[in-house]
Structures are given as C-alpha cells and as structure tokens.
Structure prediction request, 110 residues.
Amino acid sequence: GIIRTILGNFTSVFLSVGRQDYVARMTFFRVIGLTITIVPLVIFFGLVGAGYSVLISVFFEIPVVIYFSYKVFKIAKEWFCIIISLSLCVVCSIVFHINYTKLLYEKCWP
Prediction:
C-alpha cells in the first residue's frame, strides 16, 4: 500500500504535464506483473500469495515510473542509474523473501 501510494503521486504529476500515455504505460506494466504472478503464487501460497503478487506487480511498475520521471524532470544520468539499481535490489529482496517464506512454511507445516 505504501509503495503504491508513493507511485500514485507520479500519476498526478504525469497527468499535470499532459502525459496520459505515461500513466497508461505504468498501469499496463503493473497489470502484466499481476497477470504473470497471480496464478502461481495463489496456487502455492494461497491468500498470502495473492498479496505477494500485488506487491510484485507494483515493483514491475517502479522502473517505468523512474524512466518517465527521468524524461519529465531531466534527472542526471548518474542518479538515474542509481535509482534503477536500487529498484532492482528491492525486487531481488522480494524474491528472496518469497523463497525464504516457502522454506519456512515447509519446515513448520510438513
């Protein structure tokens, strides 16, 4: 919820500069992320998997938001690379957390 709230502010910014196509692309990537992850995670984790799927779909959107922010605000390329790297680290940590939860789940409930 918190991450989506932060990204929602960018939606308003992009609409205010007349770039509705950016908002549509952001939504498209989030829907693609949800479509790819929802079925496998719900099958494996149930309701918790649905929550993970929504969280991961938001992280699919982060690089798109950062790229369009770069285009709108003309951020320095060095900062752009740092922000992209950090968003990839966050995605990797989520994947690690999902795998750790699976391992913990298997040990506690055989």
